[in-house]
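[Q] Does anyone have a clean structure-token version of this?
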Amino acid sequence: MSDRVLRGARLGGQSFEDERGIDFAPRQQVAYVCPKGHEFEIPMAENAEIPAVWECQRCGEVARLVDGAAPEAEKDKPIRTHWDMLRERRSLEELEEILSERLTMLRSGEIGPDHLHRRSGRKVKRTA
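[A] Here you go.
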């Protein structure tokens, strides 16, 4: 097997094919500029849909198309908190009722951590 080693060639490093006789697709240079002022061009096919934004090759910021329209702003969803989602499922009256039930259970020792229910050596029977 050692007699079949290709000497002097980097495998996968270069192509030995010739570019003669190959017609490349027509291309255009598309220019972008990032907020930090870096300008660069990307070759694209003439019939390609040109994106309005592209990642800057130097700093990674979002670069905009030179002489292009500003991209459409994404609609921001309002931030929903845990309370907002809870209020979608329960009314205030239901929440007050649940709170009073849980406080009663906590005070009687049915729920909650053991250190809150130590009473004069008496053990509290816990249910699952």
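[Q] Thanks! Anything notable?
[A] Strands lie at 27-33, 39-45, 53-55, 62-65.
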